[in-house]
């Protein structure tokens, strides 16, 4: 059983006991069933503390015990503890530029319900938040779960956040959301506290947690959509930066004489390779109005123009990511967002640029792949965020 990465200090206003309970629950959620002795090793807590807290958690219905199968010495094999799925449910809410998703999950990570609505999220924060609140109710009904069973709500937005005050900054793709406190707004609508994070961060969490081959503790998740962002997992921990704005690679300047970006600079990566930019570049060659879905279809049909533009976008993104790889030396680069559906030309372009511009030892160490979870990565990451902030029933 691999040791999952755990936070090493309580959060603000969190008691030591609550912190230790959360460490135990996180260890079981990320690493699977474990004995009390294994939990002590994984969390660094004393055997006495683990015994007291696991007994408390079992009494509350958050943990279940099953007989162990491995005998050590002459005694009975130790019982294995795991999360008890019926203990409660989590809610994940993910806002994209043009859609809202809501998922209901149990504490073992199983998705019980999923709702999606296409919506112009940027144009009206009120409408988007009202829609999300309605979807939460619909999804709970679909899952057959009362609102009283919700132990945590996680929420993702496609914008940089000021994590200290929970507001969205200026110059983002959600202009109507500036200075808004999305978690507070949604929480007031659904009557539950809401944990908030950037959508690329949540995508990174989900892709790492749902790996089936091996656990990667250093990972870059790319969200290539209307905006360009990245979520960074470093040493098994999500890296947000001092103000919550880490990973905003879309605003790295590529051309000093380029068009003005929404951030106020010129020639940013986002102005050249976002889905909006790619559609605008290809539109003159087509009579009908194009969408990014049409571009993906054209690439699948081996359209030479669309394939070339997407491959060049991949190389341009890869050039920036190569520098990031030199700094961080990740084991994986995972490509998500709407443009990731274009597949091989995009991935090959990113891979080729990393091979060309990153240090050879760094390039050899990193794999580049499309996101396994597709466009559900962010909402599944929101479920993980909700589980991490879960309260006992």
From TrEMBL:
Pfam families for the chain: ROK (PF00480)
InterPro entries per UniProt: ATPase_NBD, ROK, ROK_cs, WH-like_DNA-bd_sf, WH_DNA-bd_sf
Transmembrane segments: none
Signal sequence interval, chain numbering: none
Record-stated family: Belongs to the ROK (NagC/XylR) family.
Entry protein name: ROK family transcriptional regulator
Organism: Rugosimonospora acidiphila
């Amino acid at each position: 059983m691999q040791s999952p990465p755990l936070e090493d200090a309580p959060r603000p206003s969190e008691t030591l006991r609550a912190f230790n309970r959360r460490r135990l629950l996180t260890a079981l959620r990320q690493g699977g069933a474990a004995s009390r002795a294994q939990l002590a090793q994984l969390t660094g807590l004393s055997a006495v503390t683990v015994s007291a807290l696991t007994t408390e958690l079992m009494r509350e219905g958050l943990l279940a015990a099953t007989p162990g199968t491995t005998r050590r010495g002459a005694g009975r094999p130790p019982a294995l503890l795991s999360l008890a799925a019926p203990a409660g449910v989590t809610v994940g809410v993910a806002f994209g530029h043009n859609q809202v998703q809501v998922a209901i999950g149990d504490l073992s990570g199983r998705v019980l319900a999923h709702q999606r609505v296409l919506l112009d999220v940027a144009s009206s924060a009120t409408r988007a938040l009202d829609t999300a609140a309605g979807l939460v109710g619909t999804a709970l009904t679909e899952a057959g779960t009362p609102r009283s069973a919700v132990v945590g709500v996680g929420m993702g937005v496609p914008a940089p956040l000021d994590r200290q005050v929970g507001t969205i900054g200026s110059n983002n793709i959600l202009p109507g959301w500036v200075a808004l406190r999305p978690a507070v707004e949604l929480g007031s609508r659904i009557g539950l506290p809401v944990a908030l994070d950037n959508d690329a961060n949540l995508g990174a969490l989900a892709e790492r947690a749902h790996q089936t081959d091996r656990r990667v503790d250093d990972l870059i998740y790319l969200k290539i959509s209307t905006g360009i962002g990245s979520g960074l997992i470093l040493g098994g921990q999500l890296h947000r930066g001092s103000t919550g704005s880490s990973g905003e690679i879309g605003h790295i300047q590529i051309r000093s004489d380029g068009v003005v970006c929404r951030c106020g600079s010129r020639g940013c990566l986002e102005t050249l390779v976002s889905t909006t930019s790619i559609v605008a570049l290809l539109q003159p060659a087509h009579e009908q109005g194009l969408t990014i879905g049409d571009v993906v279809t054209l690439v699948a049909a081996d359209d030479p123009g669309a394939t070339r533009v997407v491959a060049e976008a991949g190389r341009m993104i890869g050039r920036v990511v190569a520098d990031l790889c030199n700094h961080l030396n990740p084991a994986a680069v995972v490509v998500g967002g709407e443009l990731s559906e274009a597949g091989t030309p995009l991935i090959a372009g990113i891979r080729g640029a990393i091979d060309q511009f990153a240090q050879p030892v760094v390039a050899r160490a990193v794999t580049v792949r499309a996101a396994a979870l597709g466009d559900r990565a962010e909402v599944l990451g929101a479920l993980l965020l909700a589980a991490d902030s879960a309260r006992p029933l």
